[in-house]
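Case 447 in the screening queue. Each case pairs one protein sequence with one candidate compound; here the compound is protoporphyrin IX containing FE. For every case the pipeline is the same: read the inputs, emit a complex structure as tokens, and attach any notable structural observations.

Predict complex for case 447.
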Amino acid sequence: MRAFQILGRDAFNRDGMTSVWHANRFFTVVADPIIADVILKSCLEKDDIMKLAQLLTDNGSIFAAVSIWRPRRKILASHFNTKILNDFVSVFSKQSEILITKLKETLDRGSFSVWNYFTTYTMDAVCETSLGVQVKSQHNPDQPFLKAFEECCDLGSARMVQPWLHSMTVYRHLPQYKRYMKNKYFICDFIKKIVQSKRKDNELHQISDMNGDQYTGSDGVKSLLELLIKNSNFTDKELQEESVIMVLAGTDTTAVAASFTALMLSQHLDVQDKVYEELREVFGDSNRAVEPDDLSQLKYLDAVVRESLRLYPPVPVITRKVERDVALPGGVTLIPGCGVVVNIWAIHRNPHYWGDDAEEFRPERFLDSALKHPAAFMPFSYGPRGCLGYRYAMMALKSALASLLRQYRLMPDNESYATVKREPLRLKFDIMMKDVNNFRLRIESRN
Ligand code: HEM
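Case 447 output:
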């Protein structure tokens, strides 16, 4: 992560752009939203380095060539509408309640990592809303589907940062390739069975996986997969690929965002008090589940999540490939063949757009004034290839955090942390940006 931070700061001092060689590839690194706006609207093809992920996703839209991505995106986008997303809130609420119950076990344990709690919450929520199955990883963190996904992501990110592993000719002879493919086949087989089963009978039902575990159907909410079977001409293979994308794109990203937000709240108790006040205004003393209308009323919580996403974007960089001349504001022209790294981490801390307190955690900035440029805040990317699940993610995050904060007070991992001057978090990069200390905090019951 340090390399991206250094390159980002270097770009601030050079009118928002700098450059770097990665192995034999030349990359332009962008830390200015005006330049990013032009690039993300004119370069739609992902850079080759991201295409390494296609070993898992095949033609799934997120990394696919533009010709495959465009028609799929149109169909997928129509399914992320308000009606469908509002239906998912009951799943987020139900899974949040399980999260709260699970967190009880940490009450007397002092500091602990929230990561596993959030990643199992998001895995369960995404599987139920996208695939229409309950994998119950919150009850069983060693759940094989979750483990297979984790191992593929770990191996994939290790390969990405080691250019000598990029060649398939080399990689396919290594033991990590065998492990990668074993996990991939497990994931694909699991999803293939779900697709076939949903195709056959688009009703609630039970399926069994290879190991005999029981995965039950969702509680009456139509999943994206079921809706796509009904409303699109996607083949089984296309459905399978897009289902993998939903799980891949939706699980760890949202868990990282939830973990950073919880960490920020544990270190900014004044902010947490304001969130709690807002929750009391909306929910009073009641224990009722979160409903869609509540989410739109939680404006301060919304600002808190955005501010966490600004300082700690789960996807800190994205890439594009330049395929034709692109003239940038300022006179530079990008030429075909070069790669572009849009440094979201740096754009979010660019003092020209965020002021002298850009490094401070101050959620009010999202309530007090409008963005100086629409691309100054882009945790979900920007332009035609931006995240399809951004509203889904905000709803899943706010549902979980609202349930969590009504029940518990989040505290820093040790007493002294709150009283000493806060140091910036130490960060690492493994496809996503994470906290080196693995998101440690303590919780206290509010009752
Ligand atoms: C906090 C959570 C999330 C973050 C930070 C995030 C971030 C991103 C980013 C940065 C991209 C674009 C990559 C690029 O431009 O190269 C992306 C794409 C995508 N995301 Fe998300 N995402 C989140 C949650 C979700 C969820 C919950 C879903 C679905 C349930 C989802 C589905 C997708 C899909 C399908 C794409 C590909 C869009 C396309 O290429 O047309 N994301 N996401």
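Case 447 observations:
- Residues 258 and 290 are 17 Å apart (CA to CA).
- The pocket of protoporphyrin IX containing FE is lined by residues 61-62, 69, 73, 126, 130, 245-246, 249-250, 253-254, 257, 314-315, 318, 379-381, 385-389, 392-393 (CB under 6 Å).
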